[in-house]
Design brief:
The protein is 24% helix and 15% strand. Helix 2 links the parallel strand 2 and strand 3.
């Protein structure tokens, strides 16, 4: 029997748990553990990525009174049994990251090398882990003195 994780999401994502959850995703991927997500309210890009990376199923329940049916039909079967079922189609996963400062999706940003927080604007101090970054400027070159040629 292979290990699996089922995340049932009934509240908004918490930015404070982002790093912890990213560690869970990468550990699950390394250990070949599926992460499934059953979403009851608003979508979660992070959970979509977790399911896609680990080979799990992401499902936003369209009709809450049918929750038990979805849990039994989609999430109870193991990976082998799922291949024999007609499951909901996979969702399109947007791999753009959300900046920690405004929660906007960005394609290019700044990443803290300590905590991996992503920002849309540069800041010399990470607002998540408060690491101060040393900004290395290019070395200042001394101007070469021009030799004066004497005309004779």
């Amino acid at each position: 029997m292979k290990s699996r994780i089922l995340v049932i999401k009934a509240a908004e994502d918490s930015a404070l748990q982002y790093m912890n959850f990213m560690n869970v995703i990468f550990a699950a991927q390394k250990q070949s553990v599926l992460i499934d997500a059953c979403v009851l309210d608003s979508d979660s890009g992070l959970l979509q990525q977790a399911c896609d990376i680990t080979g799990g199923i992401y499902l936003k329940v369209p009709h809450l009174p049918s929750l038990l049916q979805y849990l039994l039909w989609v999430f109870l079967p193991d990976q082998e049994q799922r291949s024999q079922l007609v499951l909901p189609p996979p969702v399109h996963v947007d791999y753009r990251a959300a900046c920690f400062c405004h929660r906007n999706l960005i394609e290019i940003g700044y990443v803290c090398s300590v905590c991996l927080s992503i920002f849309c604007n540069f800041s010399p101090i990470c607002s998540t882990c408060e690491t101060a970054f040393k900004i290395s400027l290019p070395p200042v070159m001394k101007a070469k003195k021009k030799k004066l040629k004497l005309s004779v």
